[in-house]
Amino acid sequence: MLLRSxxxxxxxxxxxxxxxxxxxxxxxxRGAGQSFLTLSYQHxxxxxxxxxxxxxxxxxxxxxxxxxxxxxxxxxFADSNAIAFLRKTLTPEGSDVFALSLGAGWVExxxxxxxxxxxxxxxxxxxxxxxxxxxxxTFAYRADATTELKVDPVIxxxxxxGALAVLQLQTSRLSxxxxxxxxxxxxxxxxxxxxxxxxxxxxxxxxxxxxxxxxLWTEF
Length: 220
What we know:
Layout: H1 13-16, E1 35-46, E2 51-60, E3 65-74, E4 79-89, E5 96-107, E6 111-126, E7 129-142, E8 147-158, E9 164-174, E10 180-192, E11 195-204, E12 209-219
Antiparallel strand pairs: 1-2, 1-12, 2-3, 3-4, 4-5, 5-6, 6-7, 7-8, 8-9, 9-10, 10-11, 11-12
């Protein structure tokens, strides 16, 4: 069972440099005229044979307003989803960064969806070490009268050579169902001019399910 193959949608420019873009919590703005794109593929290795391909895109419309698109496709079950959203960062200059978002799109099998959300993030530095942490929460209302709540805490660490280490807790609950929890560690490193490679995994203890993930990031 796959929780999801989302990128870590967000950036902390003061601490992360040019790759702040996606490696933060989703509260930070993209920045006027700046774009970020990630493509990813996630595949179960045990016990199921599920798979998921994902796309995540952001474009800064102003210094505090960001447009985004997240989409995915599961080739095993032939289902797809796509959500476009706007995110307004309320406190772009403070140590604590807060944002609100509103998204709309389509979920296969559930129909149209409306997805409000909120996020918070903060950068940290302890001696020679620096990074970021934050929380993103969304609540999706679907045309088939179901809902889905997601709450995703994340912590990141800047490594030598521009690499990043990220640990995300992925939690979600469909209306009438139980909470699903996944632990998603990943390592991201530069691989060329304007490109980053993400390698990670998602472990879902309820199902004893392990998935591996590969992704490419670019910022322009």
